Amino acid sequence: MDLAERLSELAQALSQASAAVGVLEAIEEVLEEYGEGDLSPEEAMEEIQGLVEEFRAVRALSEMSPEEIAALAGEEEEGGLRS
Fold first, then answer.
1. Are 39 and 33 within 8 A, CB to CB?
2. Residues in CB range of 43: below 8 A, 6 or more apart
3. What is the model's pLDDT at position 83?
4. How big is the CA angle at 79 (ends 77 and 80), to the nearest 5 degrees?
5. Cα-Cα end-to-end distance for the chain
6. For residues 3 and 9, what is the distance between their CA atoms, to the nearest angstrom?
7. Residue 48 burial class via C-beta count within 10 angstroms: exposed 0-12, middle 13-18, buried 19 and up
8. Is the pLDDT confidence value at 67 over 60?
9. pLDDT tens digit string along 23-55?
10. CA 8, 10, 12, 16: dihedral to nearest 10 degrees?
11. Contacts (Cβ under 8 Å, ≥6 apart) of 83
12. d(Cα 80, Cα 66) in Å, to the nearest integer?
């Protein structure tokens, strides 16, 4: 494994770790709101599920190669132009 590959793997790991920390902080906020009575159990669960989905999307993007991301961006752009 060359240096560029290793750096790419480290960047992916850092991105995932950063996203995970962000999700945990947001979950902590949701739990505080729930504890204060600002959210019902159902609302808190919906918020947490949304945060987990967001994390999964970030993780999927961080695991893509630059070429895959460019192709995905091109598909999004084409889809946006057709709408």
1. yes
2. 34
3. 45
4. 65
5. 43
6. 10
7. middle
8. yes
9. 999 999 999 999 999 999 999 999 999 999 988
10. -170
11. none
12. 21
Token readout for 33 is 């709101």
Tokens 């995932």 belong to 16
DSSP output for 40-65? -HHHHHHHHHHHHHHHHHHHHHHTS-
Cα 75 to Cα 83: distance, rounded to the nearest angstrom: 12
Average pLDDT, integer, range 16-24? 89
Map tokens 């504890």 to a residue: 35
- Tokens 């709101």 -> residue: 33
62 vs 51: CA distance, rounded Å: 16
